[in-house]
From TrEMBL:
Keyword annotations: Hydrolase, Signal
Database matches in SMART domains: CBD_IV (SM00606)
Domain SLH: 30-93, 94-152, 154-216
Gene3D superfamilies: 2.60.120.200, Galactose-binding domain-like
Occurrences of domain CBM6 (ranges): 1033-1160
PROSITE patterns: CBM6, GH16_2, SLH
Region (Disordered), start-end ranges: 355-412
Domain called GH16: residue spans: 400-674
Name assigned to this protein: Licheninase
Organism, as annotated: Paenibacillus vini
Biased composition (Low complexity): 371-384
Pfam families: CBM_4_9, CBM_6, Glyco_hydro_16, SLH
Record family assignment: Belongs to the glycosyl hydrolase 16 family.
Endpoints of the signal sequence: 1-23
Amino acid sequence: MKKWLAIFMACSLTLSASPAAYGQEGSNHQAAPVFKDLSGHWAQSAAVHMRELGLMQGDESGSFRPGAGISRAEFVTVLHRMLGFTGQSSAQFEDVRPGDWYYEAMMRANGSGIILGIDANHLSPTAIITREEAAVIIDRALQLSTGMELGSALQQFRDAQDISGYAMKALSYMTEAGVMKGYQGKLDPKARMTRAEFASLLSGMVADVVQTPGVYDASKVNGNLVIRSAGVTLKDIVIDGNLILAEGIGEGDINLDGVKVTGSVIMKGGGSIQISRSELGRVIVDKVGETAGIKFLAGSKVQELLVLKKADIEQSLDSKFGTLKVDALARGTALKLQGAVDQMTVAASGVTLNGEKVEPGFSGSRPADKPSSGSGTTTPPASGGSSGGSSGGSTTTPPVTQPNQEKPVAPTTIPDSKWELAWQDDFNGTEINTSNWNVENTGLVYNNELQYYSPNNVSIVKEGDRSVLQIEAKKGGYGTKEYSSGKLTTKNKQDWTYGKVVVRAKLPEQQGMWPAIWMMPTDEAHYGGWPASGEIDIMEMLGGSKGTGNTSLSYSTIHYDSVQPDGSHGHDQGTYTLPGGAKFADDYHDFQLEWLPGVLRFYVDGHLVQEVERWRTKAPGQPEYYTYPAPFDRDFYLILNTAIGGDWPGAPDNDFVSDTMKVDFVRVYNYKDLASWPDVTGNPPAIEPQRNPQQDGNLLYNEKYAGAVNEQGVPEMWEFIKNEGGAGSISVVEDAEKGKAAEIKIDNAGTKNYSLQLTQMPLFVEKDKKYKVTFDAKASANRTIMSKVTQFGGSWKAYSGEVNFDLTTAWKSFEYEFDMRSETDNNARFEFNAGLNDATVYFANVQVKEIGDAAPLPEVVERKPLPDLNLIYNGTFDQGTNRLAFWETHVASGANADVSVNNFRKSHIMERQLVVNVASAGAAEEVVVAQPGMKLEANATYGLYFEAKADVPRAMEIGLTSKDGHAVQFPLGKMAQLTGEMKNYAYEIVIDDGIAVAESELQLLFGGDTGTAYVDNVRLVKRGNPVTVNGYAHIQASDAWVMNGLQLEDSEEGGKHVAYMGEGDLLQFKANVAHSAEYVLSARVASGDPNSQIRLSVKDEDGRTVTQSTYNLGETGGWQTYKTVYFEPVQLNSSQSYYLDFEGREYNTLWVDISENKIKNNKFTPDLSSWQTVSVTDTTYSNGELTLQVDGGTQNWWDSQLQQNGISLEKGKHYRLEFDASSTDPKTLQAAVGLNVNPYTKYMEQPAELTTVMQHYSYTFEMSEESDFDSQLAFGLGIPVEGDMAHAVTIGNVRLYEVNPAAEQGGQPQNVNLISNESKWFSYAPEAGELTLDIKNGVLEATIGTAGDQDWSRQLIYEGFAIQQGYKYTLSFTAKAEKARNLGIGAGWLGGAPDYAFTDYYGNSVALTTTDADFSFDFEITKPGYSNSRISFNMGNFGGTDDGFNKITISNVSLKNMGPAK
C-alpha cells in the first residue's frame, strides 16, 4: 500500500495532472520555469504540479515564495480546493469572521473535523503551520493511516522525542511511507512549514484531482487519485495507491467499473456509489451528510469494508467481502447482502441484515446465499429473499455466530438466562479490531517489569480451525528493554459498569511469564488514583516453578483503598488450582467475572474462586471513605497482556526465547434485572459470624483438645501447618496436671518462626472491641514461641501484633490483650508459631474472648487541607453513608425543605450533587447546609468555588462565620443567581484580624426562594502568594495561587508535583514583574498518556488574554519522567499583575519558571537599536527578522558579526540562548556569549548549522566565570559558504534568559535534607507494645521491649521521599543507647501486594554506646529510583544481650542528594 508514495520523492509523476486530459498516460511533469524564483529549486516540479492541479498559485509578480511560511488558513484553503469540505460548524471563533477570505474554507474544515481550534474561541488562521500540525491535518483529511503503524521510522530522527503525542500516528505513517523526510538526522516537527515543503508534501500524496464530471479511463494511476466532482465514472483502471471520494462530491453519483485499487478507498462523499467488476482493498465509508447508498455488483471483491457512518450497503450474490465491520457510530446501517462475508462484526445499534435486526456485539461469518436456478451470472441487488412467492428464489443464509464444536461456557452463580450479550470479540478476522482494542506501543511498565509493549507482538493466528488472539512474549526488545510483549486495552472503546465478563484463554508457562486478564477504571483519577480507584484482576498467573511460580495456579484479586504507612493497601485475593496437575498452558480455560452492585465473583471454568462483598476505599489524604460500593461503581475497561519478569514472577531463564498467551474470545454480558437489584448505596452487607462463640464466650472450639483427632493426630477444629523447611508431628497426649494437651514434636525447626504452626479459624473479631488470649504452655527445653490473631490472606495483618512468650519445662499460664482496630473480620485466624527451635511444645486450655470495647482513640484535633489544598471536606458529596459526611443541615421551624444527594451517570463515572428542595422558607438562613470545624487563618484571603443550578431561576446565598468573632468580608458579594444551567461560581472571602486560627463554618443558604437547587464541587482554598519576578523566578507548582481539581503528590525529582490535570481543572499562578520586558515561561511536566496536552493562557488583572498557546505534550516516559517545556515569549508590563493559567489534560507539573529575556530589541526594529554589526554589507528588516548580507572572502567566524553588549550574567547561574536562523546557502553560524573586551573569554560558544529553511536553535550553559554585567552576545557570520560566495543570513526571535539548572538535567534539589517532616516517622513491630516512639524537638526516642527474632523486627521508619538512580547520597545522624548495642541502617522501598518485597539501596550497622556519637555514610544508587522510598533504623535482634529492654535516642537525621555519581 505504500509503494506509490516512494515514487513521489523525486516529485515526478507518470500521469498528467490536467483535469481536461483524462486518459493521457505517460506524460511527465517538466520543471518548466513557471515561477521565476523556482528555477533549479528542489521543489520546482512539485510547485508546478500543484499549479497544474489548480491548488497553489504564485503571487502577482510571478513568484512562488518557496521559503515563506504557510499559514493555517492558506494550508486549509488548498485542501478545501482539493477536497471540498462540506462540514457545518456551529462554533464561533473570534479570529475567523464572515468576510474573511478564508472564512468558508476554515469553517467548513472545522465542521468536518479537519482543523480544530487552539482553544474554544480561536482557530488561529494566520499562524504559520508547523510540520507536525500539517501532517495531522492532512491525515485527518485523507484518512490514510490505519493506527497500526509501528512508529519505528521515527526513531531514525534525533529529535523524535520532540514529536507531540497527537502527531505520532500521522508522522509514523508519513515517515514510513517516505512522504515526509528529515534533514541532517532531524525531523523538526515543531518547525514552521514553508510553501515549498507543503507543495512537495502534497505533490507526493496526490497524483491527480478530478474536478469535473465525465469518464476517467486512464489505464493506470501511480499514486493517489482524488474525486471531487459528482458524475464521475472510473472505467477499467488500476490505481496503484488510494482512491479518495471527497466531500465535494456531495450527494452526487459515482460509478466504479472494472477498477482495481491496491490501497484504500475513502468514501467521504457520494449519495449513490455503484461498484462493478472491481477489486478493492480497504474501503472506509465515512460520508458526511445524508446516508450513502453503496452497491457492490458483478463479482466485486473487497478485502475489508469498514462502515464508520450510517450507510445502505447492497451486495450481489457473486460479490464477496473479506471483512465487514459496522462501527458503533454507524447506527441504523442497512445491510442487504447475498454474497459471502468471511468475517462480520457489528458494534452499532439499529443495524439490519436483509431486514432483520442485528444486535450490537455480533461477530460471525456469512456464506453466500444459494443461487436460484438459471440465474446465470447476472445478480440483481440483494432484496432480502425471494419475491412473488416463487419457489425458486434465493434463500438468505443467516450469519454463523460461533464454531459448531465450541465448548460451552460453564454456568456461574446467576443463571445464563439472566444475562444478555452486550459485546464480544471472537478474533475471527485477519487483524485486531481497532474499534474495540487499543494495541499498546510503549515502554511504560510497572512493578519493575522487563518488557516493552509492541504492536508487533500481537496478532491473529490460526490454531486448528479457530482464529485466536496471540500475545507473544519474547526475548528482544526496544531501546533499553531486553524483552518485548503485547498489551491490549478497550479503554474509551468498550467500557462497562457491572456485567459478566468471560475470557477463554490459554496461558504461557515459562519462568518469568506474568499473563493477566484485568480491568481498570476508565477515569482512574476519580476516587484518588490507584489503588484507591480500584482494580479488578480476573486472572493472573506466574509462569515457571521458581519462587511463587506455579502454572497450575491462578489468582483473582480486587485492589482498593489508599496505600498505608506500612506499604499495604486493601485487597482481597482468591486462588484456584487446576485438578490433576493440569497446567493452564495445556488447554483453553474460561476466566469469568460476575460484577454487580456490592458483589464481585470470580470463576475458572465455572468454579467459584472467590466472592467479595465488602470493601471500602479512601483516597490519599482524604478524611473519610467514599460511599459504598465505591470504587467499583463506575466504568472499567478490559486489559489483556503478558508481562515479563518484575517484582512477583522474577526474571526469565537465560535460555528463554518466547512464549505465548492465546485468547479464543472475549464476551461481556449485561444483567437483565439490574433495575431491580437491591440498592446497596452506603450499606455494605453486615459481617455475620461464620460460627458463634461458645457459651462461655470462647471464640475457639476444642480448646482442651478433648475432641476427636484425625489420622495425622491433628485435634478436631485445629490445623497443623508446616512451612519454610519445618517438619514435625502433632498428637493429643494425657497430662497429669492439665488432663489433655496438644504436643508438637519438631524434627526440623525450619527457617522462620512460622515454620510450624498450630492454628484455628474462623474467628469473628469486631472493630473497636478488646480481646484477651489465655493459654497454658510448656516445652521440653527452654524456648520461645509466638502467638497472634491475624487476618487470613490479604496482607496477613496481625490484628494482635506478634506476641512472643518464653516457655520453660514447667506449665505456665500466659495471656495477652489487644484492641481490634481493623475492619471487622469473620475469618480471622488464631496461631501458635513454634519454628526456629526443635524443643517439643505443649499447649492446653486455649481461649480467645471479647472482654469489652477497645480504648477510645484520641480525637483528631488538627483539620488539615486535602491534597488538592481544599479546606472543604466531601465537597463532591460522595463520602459517608448518605454521601453527606462533614455537612450539617439546618431547617428552621416552620420551613419545609429536604436535603439529599443524587446519583447519575456522567461520562465514565457516577456524578453526585447536593440536592436542596425548598417547599417553603421565609428567609435565606431558614434552610442552611453548613460545614463547621474549619481552621482558617486570620488576615488571609480565601477563594470559594462551586457549581450550581436550579430547576427554576432563584437566588442562593453564601456565608462564613467565625466562632472567635473575626470579621469576615466578601469583596465580590454573597449572592448567586442560579439558572437552569450548571454554572461555575467564584467568591472571595477575607478573614480579618484576630487570633491566629479562626474556627469557622461555611454556610450555603437556600431559604427565601422555593424550588430545587443543585450544588457540586465545593472548594475553599487559601490564596497563594503572588510572585514578583525580578529578572527570574522559580515557582514550585505546589505554591500556586489557585489549584482547582488537582492534587499534590511526591515527585521523584523532589518536593511535590501537582497531579491529575484533567479537562476543567486549573493550575493558576499570580505574578508581577519588576521590569517591562519580554518573558519566557517554562514548566517541568510529566505524563504517561500519549494524548496529554498543556494549554497555557496569560491574562491581565482585568481578565484580558495577553497570550495563549497549546502544547501537545504526549507521553514523556511516565508520570514521574519529566521534561521541560518552553512556551512562546510574552510581553509583560511592570504596571500590573498577571495570571498564568495552566489547563489541559493528563499531565503533572513540578515547577514553573518565569524569566526575563536579556536581549533588547529582539524583534529587530529597523533602527537596530542595541545591536552592532561587524563587516556586514547590508541589513534588511521584515516581520521581526533581520537579514544580514555577508560578502565572500571571510575566513574566521568573527570576521563578520552581529553583536549585542550590556548583558548581565551572574556566576553559577544557568542560561539558555535561543534564536531562529537561516541562510541563503547552507553554512555554519557561530553563537557565542562572552567578555566583550580582550581576552574575549567565552562563556558559551556553539556552532549552528544553518540551512535555507528557517530553523530554531537553543543552547543551555552555566556561567562558570566571575559575574559579568556587560557580557556580549555575538553571532559569528564569517565562516564562508561553499564557493566563498556572498550570501545572506536571517536571524529572528533571539532570547537569552536564566533557567533552572534542573530544566535540562532534571533531578532533586542537591544538598537539601530530604528528612524534614516529623510526621513521616513511624515505628514497626509485629508484636503490639514492643516498640514505642516519642518525638521531642526533633529527637527520636525509641523504647524497646523484647527484641524480636530478626534485626528488622523493631524499626523506626521515615518514608515519603524520592531516590534517583545514578546519584550519590549522604545519610548522617547522631545516636546513643541506654545500654550499648548495635543499630542497623537501611535505605530502600517496600513493594505492594501480594509479597511486599523490599528493594534494598543500602545497608549497614553501627555500634552504639551510652554517649552521643555522630555517624555518616555515603552511598550510590545503582538500582532504579523510587518516589516513595524510606530509611529505616533497625533495632531488633542483633544477638546481643542488651538488644531488648533498651532505649535508643537518635537526632540530627539528614539524608541529602549530593549530585550525580562520578
